[in-house]
Amino acid sequence: MRIGLPLLEAEYGALAATSVTAGGLVAGRSADLSGPAGVAAQRDGTVYIADSGNRRVRKINSVGLITTVAGTGAWGFSGDGGQATEAELSYPAAVAVDRVGRIYVAEENDGRIRAIDPSGVITTLADIQGAVNSIALDRSGNLFVGAWYQILKVAVRDGTLETVAGTGEPGLRGDGGHPKALASLLTDLW
């Protein structure tokens, strides 16, 4: 489930948009965020935020406390196989969470999809050549990614990529045609 910031603000109050220096446990309304780019929510009221400028993924629990679930705040790529809070992230632009609590993070600058399992271990699920700026899960657990003028489906079991729509070239054609072969997307899903 994805929600926008107005709904998040209605539920949790206004969010600051400054910088954060530590990933400690604080009330969500008091937390400093820097360019929150993506938001996802679970049925229990837990909200996940791709805190892009701080290079972290944050979690607001159902009682309004915020913690860092991924990222050290340092820019880069590291940490696969270790705890997500000790990993470096490069501009997390989007976040999604599945029914079992696995978190997916789109790193726009590195073109990677990272997965965080319920125990907090981070791995790279897919390495996509080019900017990745949106992700979504369907009810069956399929992960869809908006990247470089196309939509990709990522197999969550092994990271296999399949083009769903778009040619990878900018444009606006393909209505009524086969989405993989003919469709081109006007923008890079910004």
Describe the structure.
The protein has 190 residues and is mainly β. The strands form three sheets. It has a five-stranded antiparallel beta sheet, with no helix packed on it. It has a four-stranded antiparallel beta sheet with strand order 6-7-8-9, with no helix packed on it. The longest helix has 8 residues. The protein is globular and about 45 Å long. The N terminus and C terminus are likely disordered.
Order of helices and strands: HEEEEEEEEEEEEE
Q: Please give the share of residues in helix.
A: under 10%
Number of helices: 1
Q: What topology, given as strand order, has the largest sheet?
A: 1-5-4-3-2
The fraction of residues in strands falls at: 35-45%
Summarize model confidence as the mean pLDDT: 79
Structural class: mainly beta
Main sheet attributes: strand count, strand direction, barrel closure = 5 strands, antiparallel
Question: Ranges with pLDDT <50 over ≥5 residues?
Answer: 1-23, 182-190
For the CA atoms, what is the radius of gyration?
Answer: 16 Å
Q: How many angstroms separate the termini?
A: 19 Å
Number of strands: 13
Using the alpha-carbon principal axes, give the shape.
Answer: globular
